[in-house]
């Protein structure tokens, strides 16, 4: 099973989501992340994401940002986006129903807010939301 996490820059939310989910699943599950925007390609995660992950025992320092590509619709089984804006951007690139069906909001009806212009507290809140969301994703695999 291959799972892709998507946000805008691939430096704050989606690398955290990747690290948290991978830490909960065994290596039959491949978890990756990408951004809809390309400004931060090849950069490591934001220092504040690295810090909040480390505080929770997860090392995301080795991750590097990349831009979402339409090939990802084929490579991945499930594509989780962080907010409505990511959802709109990814869906606009999908050419087939089979691809659209892979895309879902990680919180179903809510956005994981972009913490880029926030502070430590916003990153803590994002961590908490993603920890809960990834528990739900894991539980869904355990049921199926
Ligand atoms: P992310 O946060 O989408 O959670 O990685 C952002 C990081 C950078 C930018 C926007 C959002 N930016 O505009 O550079």
Describe the structure in your own words.
With 144 residues, the chain is an alpha/beta fold. Helix content is 44%, strand content 13%. The chain contains 6 helices and 4 strands; from the N terminus they run βαβααβααβα. It has helices spanning 13-24, 47-55, 72-75, 84-93, 97-100, 120-143, and strands at 2-7, 30-35, 78-81, 103-105. A 4-stranded parallel beta sheet has the order 2-1-3-4, sandwiched between helices. Helix 1 links the parallel strand 1 and strand 2 (30-35). Helix 1 (13-24) packs across helix 6 and helix 2 crosses helix 6. It starts with a strand and ends with a helix. Residues 7-13, 39, 114, 116 line the site of 4-nitrophenyl phosphate.
Oligomer: single chain
SS class: alpha/beta
Number of DSSP-assigned strands: 4
The shape, in one word, is globular
Order of helices and strands: EHEHHEHHEH
Q: How many helices?
A: 6
Q: Whole-number radius of gyration?
A: 14 Å
Q: Major beta sheet, specifics? A: 4 strands, parallel
The overall pLDDT average reads 97
Helix content: 40-55%
Share in β-strands:
5-15%
